[in-house]
Amino acid sequence: MLDRVETDHVEMAGRSTRPASLLEAMRDRTKALHVTAERTGLVAELLRGRGTVQAYALLLRNLLPVYEALEADLVGHQGTPVVGLIVRPELHRSAAIRADLAQLDATDLTVLPEAIAYVRAIREAGSGSGHPLLAHAYTRYLGDLSGGQIIKKILARSLGLQQQALSFYEFSAIGDIPQFKDEYRGALEQAGAAMAEHDAVVEEAATAFQLNIALSQALQQASGLGSRERE
Prior knowledge:
Shape: globular
Strand content: under 5%
Number of helices: 9
CATH topology: Heme Oxygenase, Chain A
Oligomer: single chain
Protein name: Biliverdin-producing heme oxygenase
Organism: Bradyrhizobium aeschynomenes
Distance between the termini: 23 Å
Number of strands: 0
Structural class: mainly alpha
Largest sheet: none
Keywords: Heme, Iron, Metal-binding
């Protein structure tokens, strides 16, 4: 999430005090973190139209190893009865990020310690059963399909970026994004019903948000936007 402005995180009227599903439990656990992610760090700068091309490129460079790790670990578990339910190659972002970095001539930027910590957490999530990967897929991909589409429009308008530099937010293999999101939520629910360790996965979702927030704040500082006067 780094670029995470996920419309999924809304309170559902009339539900019981105990979440009825994995998806609902992750929503509940990350609700406050979602608000923090929108309001702090580089994500907040981008949403306010105060980003720069350099900051966007730095964001991409630091997200690249995160997506490479997530996608490698998801594919590694694609034959399993739980994680295999959510492996969707059409969501993979690594190639798109590399294309954007090449377009921006920004392939040699620094990878921050916060991105390395994020990668380490994903690798740990992918060990063993790999079930905690559900939380990272939920956080990143549903964020990209939701708030990421808002950020794409803001970047195009505020930075004058052409489509060739915004491939990260383009899902050309997905014809109907709202329908796909519904199907992906359904796959997450099905995966949740097929496993026992809900609490660990829910906490991993909180960890994923915290890692995104930490990276976003570090990127804000590294890009020089952290010293700007707040509105």
